[in-house]
Amino acid sequence: MLPLASLLLLVVASGLLSANAAPNRKLLHSMGPQGVNLWRLDAIQKSRPVSGLMVQDSPEIEMGAVSESDFREHWFTQPLDHFSKDTTDTFKQRYWINTRHYKPGSGGPVIVLDGGETSGEDRLPFLDTGIVEILAKATGGVGIVLEHRYYGESIPVANFSTDSLRWLNNAQSAEDSANFMRKVKFDGFDEDLTAPKTPWIYYGGSYAGARAAHMKILYPDIVFGAIASSGVTHAQIQYWEYMDTIRRAATPECSDHLVNSINTIDTILGIRKLKKPLKALFGLAGLKHDQDFASLLETPLGSWQAKNWDPEVGSTKFDEFCEALAKPPFGHHALRDLPFGDDSRMVRLPGGLTVDFAVLNYAKYIKENVVSRCPGDMSVEDCFGTFDDEKFQDISLDQEWRAWIFQVCTEWGYFQTAPPDQKYPTIVSRLLTLEYESKICTQAYPPGEHFVVPLMPNVTIVNELGDFDIAADRLAIIDGEVDPWRPATPHSEYASDREDTLLRPFKLIPNAVHHYDEYGLADIQNEPAEILKIHEEMIAFVQEWMEDWHAGRR
Ligand SMILES: *[C@@H]1O[C@H](CO)[C@@H](O)[C@H](O)[C@H]1NC(C)=O
Ligand SMILES: *[C@@H]1O[C@H](CO)[C@@H](O)[C@H](O)[C@H]1NC(C)=O
């Protein structure tokens, strides 16, 4: 999930800058918990036809490099509304299938990966060398990637108005999956591989990980097994723990620089005559609102989530940012060992500002890596200002961010704020309040004729399905130790501990960030030890589940 402010630019840029540029779905792939916090950059990028700068920032983008001919698209017809007769409209839901390891007549299993809040195309690597391929190979099963309604090409409506989005909710999309599992008929297969006749194993990462867990609870008759990886089964309106996880997991030096720099910046923003020179240092003198300024400062923190064990897909930007903050001026290396704010680390600047050199480095980094992406013919207010409602009125289908943010505003929350309590240190400005982070919900989704977005999301809809304690036989919970989404999973420090068993696997991958098990290499023996280990464990419990199936134990 992005800090909400950053999606604003997305709209700005795509609406004002690139009216005639073809939307690049790849750049806008990661809307939800999957996402890196670099939206506004994505947006600017989107507005510039020839540039691959942002491509490095996102694991999912690079992973999307599987050639499309490897897997062909298939389509399944779904009712737009599963629960009411108000509309009889239908739409086509896209999926892909991997039958490399399937032995006809063997009766399954089917391993289905829920595409979640992005184009299913971004998930194809998981069908090719990732978790779906790994489990299909281990079980002689069929692998599927199933695209989620309102994402990729599975778009059931003509625009993303508030009314058109009203069929985008957890209940409808879970029912899509259930309907698919009960009825799908695979091209070229005479065999009936539908559930519950055939065992289905439902996999998801992140938002889709929560969906996997929910499917096991809601449809135990057709979901034989489920694996929730980084599954955010706990929805929370104010999700300050996202940034706090990064604060605690970063190196002590980096964390110290971040906490102290932000503290300095917050203090200076409170001093009328110093505020302007400070913003100018970041190249943001023209940005009207301090909150928009503060919000831009968290942009590099998004690269934490973009880390991956596989250097082919992971970003190294977070560490580069930390290194940039720590770099002493004029090569005075000894300064690095002195505490933040030490007299000899202070730099005197125009406008009466005197700051630790880390603050200066922060400013330089933002200027060069964030502000620089704002095209020369636009003001920084045009690019990064979020208080003008007009910027969010375009409801056309290329405004892909509208789908996930609608889910955030109605059912999921996760507004990434500073800690609500002053007693916690913070790596993001205390100006990033719930009010600021959630204002997009009223700005972008005015009341429709048929649907009104609530003042705050109703997270009970998610949490009543089990929350931190969600559990069932053959529901596996897999999380990453330093994943900023971990506090929203059953591995949260707020959750009770559980045993890890074959029937109810409960595994935390050391040093891992977001759904690290979803990625895999063609030969898993070449994977780093921790990843090979989790894959071997997953193979073992899924094989055990399959033995249960064949023994008639369900
Ligand atoms: C959005 O699409 C619906 C049909 O799905 C249509 O009735 C409505 O007029 C559209 N809204 C706008 C503003 O174009
Ligand atoms: C929130 O969702 C729960 C669970 O579906 C429901 O019982 C409750 O009425 C909802 N609250 C509001 C204010 O709509």
UniProtKB/TrEMBL annotation:
<dbReference type="GO" id="GO:0008239">
    <property type="term" value="F:dipeptidyl-peptidase activity"/>
</dbReference>
<keyword id="KW-0645">Protease</keyword>
<dbReference type="GO" id="GO:0006508">
    <property type="term" value="P:proteolysis"/>
</dbReference>
<keyword id="KW-0378">Hydrolase</keyword>
<feature type="signal peptide">
    <location>
        <begin position="1"/>
        <end position="21"/>
    </location>
</feature>
<protein>
    <recommendedName>
        <fullName>Peptidase S28</fullName>
    </recommendedName>
</protein>
<keyword id="KW-0325">Glycoprotein</keyword>
<keyword id="KW-0732">Signal</keyword>
<dbReference type="GO" id="GO:0070008">
    <property type="term" value="F:serine-type exopeptidase activity"/>
</dbReference>
<dbReference type="InterPro" id="IPR008758">
    <property type="entry name" value="Peptidase_S28"/>
</dbReference>
<dbReference type="Pfam" id="PF05577">
    <property type="entry name" value="Peptidase_S28"/>
</dbReference>
<dbReference type="InterPro" id="IPR029058">
    <property type="entry name" value="AB_hydrolase_fold"/>
</dbReference>
<comment type="similarity">
    <text>Belongs to the peptidase S28 family.</text>
</comment>
